[in-house]
Design goal:
With 417 residues, this protein is an alpha+beta fold. The chain has a domain of 88 residues. The chain is 29% helix and 13% strand. A four-stranded antiparallel β-sheet has the order 10-13-12-11, with no helix packed on it. A three-stranded antiparallel β-sheet has the order 1-3-2. A hairpin with a 3-residue loop joins strand 2 and strand 3. The N and C termini lie far apart (60 Å).
Length: 417
């Protein structure tokens, strides 16, 4: 009989949390009317709240424990157009010659990523959002920042464990399970990578080549697998396996960034590029797929083709992405403000749908070539412990102090960070 010390301990798998230690929980809006697929509807919803009398305003606002029309909070970092006085006071002052920040004018909606693939618009006013995660807004940077979005774990569900976006993501999972948001950089302008200290140097020495922060993210995109503890991201011992995985991950990243950071927007080659073959009706009530014709059918008249079956079948968290995208634009509104939306199907949504089909098709095509975790020798947690990379210092699990600009606190006072 062997004693316990003679039995080799099973190596613990590495997690994304070991490599990119700073993570943030998803945003919690508290009211769905502040986000939507088109900015004009958001402005119209805002105007209805501002112009309503006090009793109706409270009902329209959808108060929660954290936010009511009388809540005063700090401004969102980088969003200087929204006021910090209670919204109810801004309503009273609207049109009285007050400064623009408190005049009752709707802040310009910003583009965000809703769920894994749906680009929508959000009113960037902290008074409207229960938990906006200001630490994410502070490091949002359209020229450099990339957000890794860890999907919530759903046992047996199909779809990627990890995605990425240049847009600020809300981090919501289509299956309702919370994930985590991990910025690639802890400061604006691509400063201070969100990597465990010493990791890049250790990997660079092991592989005999430079390892950049985007290389680590690219490898994670190509290799991550879901688990109840978070995304598993094994690191290979072999340089060739690493190189193949990083190259694949950069292709996936290019698709996911959708033209951000100066890259071209994703396009399928000629002959495979989807087009609107028949005009979408004013109010399509269904979305179906014709496999024989490789066509997406919207309502009784709309037709888009060719649409690869891989794009139609693409799921995240067990939910079909294209069906969820369509539901977000056509489902029965949950409240009076959510009902303020386009009366007819906008032309812009056709363009967005064509791009989404393209993104899903290209991603599915590339993702099939990812390295199988049981096909290569892996670096272990002990390897990283011996090198001094692990354990992760507690300080890098917290946001960095970003003090490059003043932030307006409640009631117009400067916020102290």
């Amino acid at each position: 009989m062997r004693c316990v010390s003679d039995v080799a301990e099973t190596p613990q798998p590495l997690l994304l949390d070991d490599l990119m230690p700073w993570s943030v929980a998803p945003l919690r809006l508290g009211r769905s009317w502040v986000m939507g697929p088109d900015p004009a509807s958001l402005r119209a919803r805002w105007d209805r709240v501002i112009q309503a009398d006090e009793a109706d305003r409270d009902a329209l606002f959808s108060p929660t424990r954290l936010r009511t029309p009388r809540t005063s909070v700090a401004a969102l970092p980088g969003q200087r157009t929204a006021g910090t006085l209670p919204l109810a006071l801004s309503c009273v002052r609207a049109g009285e010659g007050t400064p623009a920040a408190d005049s009752g004018r709707c802040p310009d909606p910003v583009r965000v990523l809703h769920g894994p693939f749906d680009e929508q618009w959000l009113i960037p006013d902290h008074r409207l959002i229960d938990t906006a995660r200001p630490e994410l807004w502070r490091v949002t940077d359209p020229a450099h920042q990339i957000f890794a979005i860890e999907q919530g774990y759903v046992p047996g569900a199909a779809g990627p464990a990890l995605l990425a976006s240049a847009l600020l993501p809300d981090g919501r999972s289509p299956a309702g399970r919370p994930g985590r948001i991990r910025p690639l950089y802890r400061r604006p302008d691509g400063q201070e990578p969100n990597l465990t200290p010493g990791l890049s140097g250790f990997l660079g020495k092991h592989y005999g080549r430079e390892v950049t922060p985007e290389d680590v993210l690219a490898w994670a995109l190509a290799s991550a697998r879901p688990s109840p503890r978070g995304s598993l991201v094994p690191l290979p011992r072999d340089l060739q396996v690493w190189s193949v995985g990083v190259e694949l991950g950069h292709r996936l990243l290019t698709v996911l960034l959708r033209g951000a950071h100066g890259a071209d927007r994703p396009r399928l080659p000629g002959g495979r590029r989807p087009y609107v073959r028949a005009a979408v009706g004013p109010r399509p009530d269904s979305l179906t797929y014709d496999r024989e014709e490789s066509a997406l059918l919207l309502g009784a008249s709309g037709r888009i083709s060719p649409v690869p079956a891989a794009a139609w079948d693409f799921e995240v968290g067990g939910v079909r992405v294209l069906e969820r995208w369509f539901e977000e634009r056509t489902a029965e509104p949950s409240g009076p403000l959510e009902g303020v939306r386009p009366r007819e199907w906008p032309q812009e949504w056709n363009s967005e749908l064509l791009e989404l089909v393209t993104v899903l098709a290209l991603y599915a095509e590339a993702a099939g070539g990812g390295p199988a975790q049981d096909s290569y020798d892996q670096l272990t947690r002990n390897d990283l412990l011996t090198a001094g990379v692990l354990p992760v210092p507690a300080a890098v699990r917290r946001p960095a102090s970003v003090l490059d600009h003043h932030e307006e606190g409640p009631g117009g006072q400067f916020a102290l960070l």
